[in-house]
């Protein structure tokens, strides 16, 4: 059965990458959560998509140049939900630890391996390895994670067409492919899966696309609209 991952939490209705969005993803029946992680100036792992605060909060600045205490002064800016704060990855792990949900952590930013090391140190405190997927557009980050902790599932994330992405597996040691639906057909997804790679599709938001992919053999879809996906799945 195809799993449903909440893209940055229940993003369609709640502030992206906020604890509220993650709690609502759980409440509305997601099988997993996808989120983004950056490293702060004081080497804290924080959950935010962009390199800067500008788009998603009421403040400006570059995440890597600010301490966590400085980041916590920012309010996530989405409609009436103005008091959500940028969370630590630890907060999300604490939330999910006693649930069956999977967690896809996307590594953002280039830190020369510091982020990856801090991430492995944090994840070692939890017994969640079998429910974790570490993904990135940066293949070096993907390889570094697998070298640091072979038990973790890793995934190569890309947003363009990549011909025969499985050929990179032996070099970069990934276990899955996270690909944009614009560049993937059911047949191509099957070719990826035939190479012993998990296939997850993003960002699947239209009802017709959700229904299409839920009828295939991919591992998961990643969506902004948790309720639509969960309700559609009931009739597949």
TrEMBL record:
GO terms for biological process: lipid metabolic process. GO terms for molecular function: phosphoric diester hydrolase activity. SUPFAM superfamilies: PLC-like phosphodiesterases. It holds the Pfam family GDPD. Residues 2-233 form the GP-PDE domain. CDD domains: GDPD_TtGDE_like. PANTHER family: GLYCEROPHOSPHODIESTER PHOSPHODIESTERASE, CYTOPLASMIC, GLYCEROPHOSPHORYL DIESTER PHOSPHODIESTERASE. This is Glycerophosphodiester phosphodiesterase. It comes from Macrococcus equipercicus.
């Amino acid at each position: 059965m195809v799993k449903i991952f909440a893209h940055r939490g229940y993003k369609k209705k709640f502030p992206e990458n906020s604890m509220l969005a993650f709690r609502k993803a759980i409440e509305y029946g997601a099988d997993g959560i996808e989120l983004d992680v950056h490293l702060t100036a004081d080497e804290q792992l924080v959950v935010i998509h962009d390199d800067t605060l500008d788009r998603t909060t009421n403040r400006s600045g570059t995440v890597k140049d600010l301490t966590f205490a400085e980041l916590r002064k920012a309010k996530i800016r989405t409609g009436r939900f103005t008091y959500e704060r940028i969370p630590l990855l630890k907060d999300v792990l604490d939330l999910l630890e006693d649930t069956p949900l999977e967690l896809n952590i996307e590594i953002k930013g280039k830190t020369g391996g510091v982020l990856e090391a801090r991430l492995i140190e944090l994840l070692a405190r939890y017994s969640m390895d079998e429910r974790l997927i570490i993904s990135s557009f940066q293949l070096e980050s993907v390889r570094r994670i697998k070298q640091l902790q072979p038990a973790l599932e890793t995934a190569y994330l890309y947003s363009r067409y990549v011909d025969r992405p499985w050929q990179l597996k032996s070099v970069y040691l990934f276990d899955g492919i996270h690909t944009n639906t614009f560049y993937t057909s059911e047949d191509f997804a099957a070719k990826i899966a035939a190479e012993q790679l998990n296939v997850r599709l993003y960002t699947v938001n239209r009802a017709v696309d959700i229904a299409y992919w839920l009828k295939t053999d991919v591992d998961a879809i990643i969506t902004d609209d948790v309720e639509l996906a969960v309700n559609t799945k009931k009739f597949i």
